[in-house]
Design a protein that fits this description.
about 70 residues; 2 helices; single chain
Amino acid sequence: MKELCNRHTTEHLTSHVKNTLSRYDVSVTRVYSVTTDNGANMLKAARVFRETDDEPDASSSDEEDDSGYP
């Protein structure tokens, strides 16, 4: 666990998570779930990782999914 002193923007959160995963040599594709407080910035960061993990031929939707599940 690490305290974040900067603003909790999607970009900052995404960068911090990527750096942490990299430090422990964990690929984004190995992340099974994300637990959040359902804040908009947290949900968007989880979506960024989900989109990174999506296969190119997978069907996608333009609808916003605010269910809290990445």
